[in-house]
Amino acid sequence: MRTWMPRQWAVAVAVALVAGVAIGVPTGVVPTPFYTRMTPVLWWNYPVWVASSLLMGLLVATYAGRPPAVRADGPRGRRALLAGVLSAFAVGCPICNKLVVLALGVSGALSYWAPAQPALAVASLALLTHALVRRLRTAAACPVPPVPARRDPAELQGSADYDERSLVPEGSHSGGEGSDRASAG
């Protein structure tokens, strides 16, 4: 992270703020007039909420400034998203979650889901930390070279990047409109 550009730090801060709002408002950790939490916010909900928001911001910032081919992270990206969803379930109100109440009922949500939430929080933070560490190690071990700027074909004539097809006019390829005139004359 020592070599990050200002753009990556800006992405980290912006994503951390968005993740904080996306997790904090629907779970009632951030009090708003839109949602009233039915159970009190526990002391550990705040550090988990802040830590997961920061980790998400840092994780997304590792993708900023990379070429599109490098950004495709496939299953790992989905796992990181799953870790973010886990953190929302971990800090959320156990009886406000309709899926949990539907599956377990209100008494089951308080008896089984609420005690499992700290374990979900630890799992979420562990997954996000693991994903961030892997992304940072990969970036340090295999840095992506900067994308070269497009150059004029005349500059490329003596270089190893020379491609003669780029210098041939469109109509002069065989089968093009200029080839009929050349053979007719």
What report would you give on this structure?
With 185 residues, the chain is an all-alpha fold. It is 63% helix and 0% strand. The longest helix has 44 residues, at 98-141. The radius of gyration is 27 Å and the shape is elongated. The protein starts with 5 loop residues before the first helix and ends with a helix. The mean pLDDT is 78.
Overview features:
185 residues, mainly alpha, 63% helix
Taking all Cα atoms into account, the compactness measure Rg is: 27 Å
The biggest beta sheet is recorded as:
none
Counting helices, strands and paired strands, the structural category is mainly alpha
Low-pLDDT ranges = none
Molecular shape: elongated
Write down the overall mean pLDDT: 78
Distance between the termini: 67 Å
Helix content: 55-70%
Care to count the β-strands? 0
Succession of helices and strands: HHHHHHH
Q: How big a fraction of the residues is strand? A: under 5%
Count of helix runs: 7
Summarize the structure.
The longest helix has 44 residues, at 98-141. The chain contains 7 helices and no strands.
Which helices and strands appear, and what pairs or packs with what?
Blueprint: H1 6-27, H2 45-61, H3 68-71, H4 75-91, H5 98-141, H6 153-156, H7 177-184
Helix pairs in contact: 1-2, 1-4, 2-4, 2-5, 4-5
